[in-house]
Design brief:
Strand content: under 5%
Helix content: over 70%
Number of helices: 8
Mean pLDDT: 81
Distance between the termini: 24 Å
Order of helices and strands: HHHHHHHH
CATH class of one domain: Mainly Alpha
């Protein structure tokens, strides 16, 4: 009986405190892949997350509000954004640097990572019409921030349910085996005598 309770407690500890992953960071995984002579040209590039896109958007807004052109603001943001967002901005700006319209690079960036869609639509509209882009970027930032907050709330709500799982599966059976069963057994043996 105590062995069963100990196993339940061990299972609960494993569920609450999982073992670390094989690679702590993606950088370590890429380094290991490069060391093992795997062809890295076919590996997919990591897409920028919503929070990285939001950070890049805030830098773009800073550049545009200070009087920079959209292309200059994108370059400014590319230099100061998180790595994955900077790579995506760099791919769009490279097309502009070799002579293609900036609109083409922005469209391709939105196709590659749909998280950029509202931002690129705003920038393309401003490039085509020549109108100011500050207010529209503020709206895009608000929408992006709202979606990030919604995702965080979903993760928090799911974590509440997941945290109850070890309690229901492991701690309660262990408690019943260690506390309730001996008390009931002593009561039953007292009635039998």
């Amino acid at each position: 009986m105590t062995l069963m309770a100990a196993l339940c407690l061990c299972l609960a500890a494993c569920l609450l405190f999982p073992l670390p992953r094989k690679y702590e960071t993606e950088k370590q995984a890429v380094e290991i892949k490069n060391e093992s002579n795997i062809d890295t040209t076919k590996l997919e590039l990591k897409k920028a997350s919503s929070s990285e896109i939001l950070r890049a958007l805030q830098i773009i807004q800073l550049g545009v509000s200070s009087g920079m052109t959209i292309s200059d603001a994108l370059e400014y943001s590319q230099e100061r954004s998180p790595n994955t967002a900077a790579q995506e901005l760099d791919r769009a700006l490279n097309q502009f640097r070799i002579g293609f319209p900036l609109v083409r690079g922005l469209e391709e960036m939105a196709i590659t990572n749909p998280g950029w869609q509202s931002i690129t639509d705003t920038l393309i509209t401003s490039l085509n019409s020549g109108g100011p882009v500050g207010d529209q970027l503020n709206d895009a930032e608000f929408i992006l921030q709202s979606s990030i907050d919604t995702e965080k709330l979903k993760r928090i709500k799911s974590m509440a349910v997941k945290s109850v799982l070890p309690l229901g599966l492991c701690f309660l059976p262990a408690f019943i085996l260690l506390a309730v069963v001996p008390i009931v057994a002593s009561l039953v043996s007292g009635f039998i005598k």
